[in-house]
Amino acid sequence: MKLLLGLLLLWLLSSEGNAYHLEEQGKLKARRSFQFSCEQAMLPETPSSSVHALRPADIKTVTAIGSLQRTSRSGVSHEDLLQSTGKSLLEVSMETLAALISSFNPSVLHQSPPPGTKGVTSESQAIDLLHQAEDTVKLMKENQMMDFQNDWKLITVFFSDENPCSSCASAQPKNCVLDSLEKLKAVLDFLYKKVPKAFVNLVDSTKLTTSFLACQDYNNASSPGRNQCSCVRERSTLDDNILRWSYQDAWEKLLESERYDQKDDFTVVLQPSLQETNLLLRPGSDGFVTTSEAQVETLEEYYTFMAVGLWNSMMEPVGQKQPYSVTRRLQVQCPSQENPYLFTNKNSNYSSSLETSNTKETSQERSYGTNIPCFDRSPSDTVPVSVHNLKPADIRVIAALGDSLTAANGAASKPHDVLDVLTQYRGISWSVGGNENISTVTTLANFLREFNPSLIGYSTGNGKETADNAALNQAVAGDRAEHVAAQVRRLVNLMKNDTRINFQTDWKIVTLFIGGNDLCQFCNDPARYSPENYTYNLQIALDILHSEVPRTFVNLVTVLSIASLRELHALKNNSCPKLLMRILCPCVINPEDNSNELKKVIYFNRRYQERTRQLVESGRYDSKDDFTVVMQPFLVKVDMPKTQEGLPDSSYFAPDCFHFSQKTHSQAARALWNNMLEPLGEKTDNQQLEGEIVLKCPSEAEPFLRTYKNSNYTYPNEMPHYGSQLLCEDRSPSSPPATSVHFLKPADVKIIAALGDSLTAGTGIASDNLLDLDTEYRGLSWSIGGDMSLENMTTLPNIFREFNATITGYSTGTGSENDSNAFLNQAVPGAQAVHLPAQARNLLSLMKTDPRIDFGADWKLITIHIGANDLCNYCKGPDHYSAENFIRRIQETLDILHNQVPKALVSLVDVMDLLPLRKLFVDTEVQCPTYMADYLCSCVLTGEENSPNLTIVREATRAYQLGIRNLVESGRYDTHENFTVVIQPFLQNPKIPLGQDDLPDISYFSPDCFHPSQKGHSQLAKALWSAMLQPVGQKADSFDFMADIVLDCPTQDTPFLGTYKNSNYTYPSVEPTNEPTENWGSDLSCSEQAPSSRVPTSAHELQPADIKVIGALGDSLTTAVGAKATDLQTDWRGLSWSIGGDGTLETQTTLPNILKKFNPNVFGFSTGTSKETAGFNVAERGATAQNMSAQARELVELMRSSSKINFKEDWKLITILVGGNDLCQYCLDEETYSVQKYVKHLQDTLDVFYEELPRVFVNIVEILEISGLRQIAASSSECALTAKAACPCFLKPEENSSELQEIERVNRDFQVEALQLVNSGLYEGREDFAVAMQPFFRNTLLPLDSNGKPDLSFFAADCFHFSARGYAEMAAALWNNMLEPVGEKQTYNNFTHDRSKLKCPNQEKPFLSTLRNSGFRNSDVNLEKTKPSVPYWAVIVAAVGGVLVGSLLIWVVSGRRAKRHQRETDTEKNIKTTSL
Predict the structure, then answer these.
(1) Cβ neighbours of residue 159 under 8 Å, at least 6 residues apart?
(2) Which of 29, 549, 584, 1118 counts the most CB atoms within 10 A of its CB?
(3) Strand 1038-1040 relative to strand 1256-1261: parallel, antiparallel, unpaired?
(4) Is the separation of the CB atoms in 1000 and 993 below 8 Å?
(5) Quick one: which of 1049, 756, 757, 1016 has its CA closest to 908?
(6) Which of 88, 93, 357, 404 is an active site residue?
(7) pLDDT, greater one: 1227 or 861
């Protein structure tokens, strides 16, 4: 961005005649939100001779013209639309484009807009576009700084279609388009004839104009602007979209005619329009107000974004250009080496000519009539009084409600005439059209006219709902469910005022079909278009009909499966206007295949259908004998009609490929007729439109239109019963009162409590829609709810109340854990094991302070269930959610209760296996919100079967369960008679309920298909009660939601709640384990530990005891992340292998602790964990090679400023290890992490020390071969997941892939080139300076445990960083390398703990080894001689070097720069919480 600002400033300063812009320099900061990274190009020696090979550097002049004025009707100040304050769009566009081009041609000029194009006062006074073009050409010719004939010009023309409220647009849309086209042709013809060497951008600015005009000053009652807004709203969104598309289509056809491509030095390119439109509007207290002076800067920033979007479009081939939005921060696109020119129609090889459909229609298909095979067409003998005895001939009045599908938009339009879709062919509408007769036009009305020729109400001809010929077809194009009530009001008034209709006695049929527009827009406002609001709006409309319109049969046609429309859009080479389809129905067409957005569309669609069914089957509209609503479901599972070749058949659609053609209207009428005659429960719900539909007829036995009553259909029971019976005879308490928890009868329990997550909090138990899922129905919770009684609702407290009516502690009603009615239900939605101790403390406080509880005397039952949220997030942080951490939190919770709560039985319900729940989200036939899977439980519900995520979750589940068992069976909580913990294991193996169709039965779940419903909670309560009575060792470890669970009773032989003692259960003994090593120290007893007799002046004669100062550079390896294995948040610098000084050598092996044996006063080592005690350890998490020179300078300054050392005289030892992060991120940015830059950064670092630091010995620890990380990752699923996120370039490639071979080669090059740098002789010019390569990591052996698996005790919990044991091994290997001569250094480390493995200095050569004292001088040590013969496990080291903690951020940022990785959204990077 700074580069762009600089370019803008330099360009303005260098352009003569632009003093105005110099005065406006302060506003350049508005262009600060996009990136400009195009390298400056050399000016071409000769400009291009062809506009189709025109490069940015060829352009010498930039200018623009535009029709952006407001109209005189708006009643507001008539300034330029985009010039109310500050600069106009024209000015900002020219400035921005010229500034961008100046990167390629610094001498580019810009021609200001002609005088009068900004600040005009009215439409009549506004300079029209042709006059602007004439003035602009005149100004260019007069400009002394340009060669008009020979300079290339970039001209941008902003052109808009007709004002939406003009008489032209409203009354004559086709002529309006033609007039607009003629105006544009006049402008382009003029430029084509008068301007040589020109590239013309044509930009549609319609949205900028109409969005402002639509509601400017809408709330000002005195302003004509209110009429302006009303004018726009009189037209539907459908009209606007089709009209706007027609303009765009006309412009495209004009340019495709090659009218302006006859010369090689001129072309016109249509650029995409801006998506975001409301630039000048901001919400005010009374509506929308215009932009204020304070917003000028933001407005100009928007204009800049628009100009950048225009530039980017110029860089994209015609046919691949995409609309852009000011809401997105744009990065400037650069010309490519392959295509360095601006794209034109010709050099894009673009042709939008679409192949016409190969579908051939037979004569029968073109004839849309029908022969009715019904012979009995007579009415009832007497006018029926019941809607359930209604024959087709009894129908006297027909009406319809709905949207453009009922208005029949485009039904009779000719192929490719998209603009004609604006025509509403109501006379052929499937449900109410009455053109001609049934032999030529098939509609429901024409069917009924064959039975009753006196039928009235049908629509004829064309027109809107307000036309007389529309009659009782009151459907409105573009309407949604929220508008239907208004349609009903108009319909009722029409029927009441029609003298031909006897409103009270005539039988009426009303067909309602609505919902397509709701689904098309739901993604823009999911709450507004939710299934609940959809059916609520239907209910309002139907309620009006039910209460006000007698003798009515309502066809409620279920919304169709709209996702099939995508097939038509996806088909190539058909005539469908794809852009228009995306505009008309963005929420259905735009989502990617298999995306969550698409899954949400399908889910909402099904919920619309299901909620419609529930509304009808509620019986709400069957309270009167003369009225009913019948759902007609023929479109519920409708498929896209196909051709004989199996391709989507566009002949069933209007030219916009969205509305129905007459062919489909005919088929829909036939299908509706058949549905009306089919009994409920047997209605067709998957009508195939392309096949012949055989018409049904009323029969003598069944002559009526079918209703629930005459179909003998019973609506499903909507009020299920979830109560239970308890047949226990003995319900008495213990006598005398129980003194031991092992002799506790149900009636002895006086207090009941619970801890846990949303399952126990009762989330969504009684919810009937997704919007209610945040309600906590605590009174219905399985383990603690106390609403109603056992007869009505089965919960554990309701069962216990059958034994002790005075039991207390249960929750009632709804609310949070803090509400008083929650009482001792302290569960919290979203809680994880880490939150459980806090819940226990809150519970303890409540029990101690509540006057209803005798804390010391009352027996308490506490149910605990937790773990689902830990498992749902496990794949995102296996270390955080490890079984060890989980059990530690459970133990902490139980310890609190054990230590402080007397007389308590803790019922610990085992961790539930969540994997079976996947069945609810995998099968698309199940009506579950699959799009919510990632939100609800991403680690379980998403991903493929047998994926690494599911594998580790499966392992973690078993580890959680095993850990709980080991904890409880340790006897830790059986130290006294009044407390015990009992595991209830029935959720270990849950079985998902299946219906008769073998699909999951979602009635057991809330609307999210994740939390149990009231039905599910009832079953859980029964299973828990049964488990509590079962003896330990014999408890059920599975749970079937559908099982017929009968409530058991305590028996005379076993009257107590089961515990280990009263079950005669013996806990299995725990096998002893080997005692761990107490520390990772070493023994060192060297005979010679004294310093040199005199302070050496040569680095090649340096003995260990001569070292007085120690320092280190690097990443998180050197900060010692993970030294305390389970803590990954702390830098344990005091334990760092190369610089840590905590403890002594006997307790922790580190390089400083070794050197202390030779010089107890060595200075600079780290201690503890804080930065203040880091000493000369300047390493940082996440560091890469490019950070090393900065660390080196920091270290030099620290040493120079330290009063503890003699900067010039003291010998210093510095260790550097870096490069793991560079390798792990290499594939994400090959330039930044290249071998050359890695070595260059090392050289820069060594140069700092070489030039500024006296008396220094530098250890460069050779980067290891990181491909070995794959072996570690393969050893553990937890390691695999974490490693992939941390080191993608090594772990994501497949075995033997070219990507893996490439990164292994780069790894090797890192080693070779670094060694060559060290051996290059660059640092041999100073006697007091030496640098040595320490290669112990080169061929490291993989440490194995006793089972032959990788020994993870060397690592922290993340499998990346080392543990204290691993760091100790590194320190020992480094020390030994320092003493080994060059050429004889050990290039491997076997990582076996041996306290005596440290070497001593050679008595003959007691020095730290360098090239010189090893017998080499400028040696070229050949790394290839030490080719590895074994796998390298120490990959962990490199990955750790900041990858896990600091570098994950670097990785994410770098990943954005690598386009091929943008689509990979690993769940481990997308941490969310879940409501369970």
Answers:
(1) 66, 67, 129, 184, 187, 202, 203, 204, 205, 251
(2) 1118
(3) unpaired
(4) yes
(5) 756
(6) 404
(7) 861
In angstroms, the Cα distances linking 834 to 883, 886, 890, 963, 1366 are 12, 7, 8, 15, 29
Q: Identify whether 659 is a catalytic site residue.
A: yes
How far apart CA 693 and CA 372 sit, in angstroms, is 12
Q: What is the DSSP letter of 1070?
A: P
Q: Where are the beta strands (DSSP E) in 316-362?
A: none
Distance CA 1151, CA 1137 (A): 6
Please give the DSSP secondary-structure letter assigned to residue 909.
E
Separation between Cα atoms, residue 1422 and residue 477, nearest integer Å? 80
Decide: helix, strand or coil at residue 287: strand
d(CA 842, CA 819): 13
CA angle 898, 899, 903 (to 5 degrees): 55
Report strand pairing: 1211-1217 vs 552-557: unpaired
Please name every residue paired with 398 in a beta bridge, in sequence order, or none if there are none: 509
Nearest partner of 269 among 307, 317, 304, 312, judged by Cα: 317
The per-residue pLDDT for 126 is: 41
pLDDT band of 355, cuts 50, 70, 90:
very low
How much is the average pLDDT of 1351-1365? 78
- 1395/1077 Cα distance (integer angstroms): 11
Q: Where are the beta strands (DSSP E) in 1143-1273?
A: 1211-1217, 1256-1261
**For residue 960, is pLDDT > 80?**
yes
Candidate list 21, 569, 659, 1017, residue with the active-site label:
659
Q: Is 404 a catalytic residue?
A: yes
The residue among 168 and 559 whose pLDDT is bigger is 559
- DSSP for 852-869 reads T--TTTSEEEEEEE--HH
Whether residue 164 contacts residue 240, with contact meaning beta carbons closer than 8 Å, is answered with yes
Q: Where are the alpha helices (DSSP H) in 590-690?
A: 596-617, 662-677
Alpha-carbon distance of 1368 to 1138, in angstroms, equals 9
C-alpha–C-alpha distance, residues 1283 and 1444, integer Å: 8
What's the pLDDT at 661? Answer: 96
Residue 1190 burial by CB count (10 A; 0-12/13-18/19+): exposed, middle or buried? middle
Closest CA to 207 of 162, 272, 273: 273
8 A C-beta contact, residue 459 and residue 469 = yes
Determine which one of 518, 622, 649, 656 is catalytic: 518
Indicate if 665 belongs to the active site: no
Bridge-based pairing state of the strands 979-984 and 989-991:
unpaired
pLDDT for the residue numbered 613? 92
Higher model confidence: residue 390 or residue 1074?
A: 390
3-state secondary structure of 706: coil
What is the end-to-end Cα distance of the chain in Å, rounded?
44
Residues in the chain: 1476
Please check whether residue 110 is in contact with residue 151, taking contact to mean a CB–CB distance below 8 angstroms: no
Q: Is the peptide bond before 736 cis (omega within 30 degrees of 0)?
A: yes
- Assess contact for 633 and 675: CB atoms under 8 A: yes
**Residue 799: predicted pLDDT:** 96
For residue 904, list its beta bridge partners. Answer: 860, 979
DSSP-based three-state secondary structure for 1370: helix
Which pair of tokens denotes residue 855?
A: 């804390």
Q: What share of the chain is helix, strand, coil (3-state, %, to 5)?
A: 40, 10, 50
Dihedral of alpha carbons 103, 109, 110, 112, sign? positive
CA angle (741, 790, 1003) in 5-degree steps: 110
CA 1111/CA 1091 separation, integer angstroms: 19
According to the model, what pLDDT value does residue 478 have? 93
Asked if 438 contacts 449 with a C-beta cutoff of 8 angstroms, the reply is yes
